Amino acid sequence: MSGTPGAAGDLLTGPARTGPDESDWAAAVAAVRRLPADARVLLICHVNPDGDALGSMLGFGLGLRRLGVRHLQATFPGPPEVPEPFRWLPGLDLLVPSTKAYPDPDLVVCFDAASESRLGELVDRLDTAGDALVLDHHASNTRFGRVHLVDPAAAATSVVVDELLTRLDVPLDAEIAQCLYVALTTDTGSFRFEATTPAVHQFAARLLATGIRPGDISRQVFDTRPFGAVRLFGEVLGRARLEPAAAAGNGLVWTYATQDDLARHDQRPYVLEALIDSVRCTAEADVACVLKQVGPAEWAVSMRSKGAVDVSAVAVALGGGGHRFAAGFTGAGSAEDVVRSIRAELDGALIAR
Ligand code: AMP
Ligand code: MN
Ligand code: MN
């Protein structure tokens, strides 16, 4: 899950960029409105999709369907496996494996992806598509499309989706609301993070007013996992290490999970996404990291900060991206190699500040 608190004002990556202006919104609306009746539209969210990526993409897809778009696909790079917690989402019938995605759609729309690298093997669609729309909320977004609706102040990409659907005169219904609610709760940590503004609660109120059931949704998305994952978490948390002197004395806590750990407990990689939440609660550390092995010498790294460190600056320096308090990158070498590179960047980041 991508905890994505108050994204505005990255201390180390320059001043916060402002959100879309009226001409951006108008261009996005026009890109949808001018689609011919037989247009093929391809929706893409980032690799290893989280609740915001899937919820924003499927919610927008359902909206396009309501507008009468008939040739519509949703996809993401990598294996076409939807994490179990999201397997009930409305709009899943739009999903196709990346290998089956339109090679040259009339319009491609990207969701919650800060950079092209997050689109994996689907990145070529940015060139082959007739038009390319980017919906996102990462301050580090590299503006890789043609029309960009990127709002670093938005708590989730679903906030941007909601605004675009409103401008397209698509009424909010319970199915769209379920998708956008999953996205919103995922990225605000269930309304706990800094980005939880009055506007976020007002958005949530509109979603709930469609009759969706927040208790059921939260249980499925956040509070359900196989017993094997519970045992796996126990093992991985048991090997967590606390380094109080790291990050210039602000403290670092980290752990790692290998592919062998997953195999021993018969678990799928996505169960590890929730691990960071059990690590970042460590009182003695400002920064928390979880290294998830994705290849023999390759690790998907999740980082969280309580505020002293801008982890997006660390992630960007190491080839990734994210937000001030929640970021990630892909690291190479042993787990110890990757942690060494993080330690070095953490010290550098704090000195720069
Ligand atoms: P995660 O730890 O996977 O929940 O990701 C936290 C935040 O960092 C999210 O906003 C992600 O979009 C971003 N992020 C994670 N991994 C990467 C990466 N390899 N490249 C760019 N951004 C990333
Ligand atoms: Mn995401
Ligand atoms: Mn997001």
TrEMBL record:
SUPFAM superfamilies (UniProt xref): DHH phosphoesterases
A matching Pfam family: DHH
Keywords: Hydrolase
EC top class, as a word: hydrolase
Domain of life: Bacteria
DDH domain segment(s): 40-183
UniProt name for this protein: Phosphoesterase RecJ-like protein
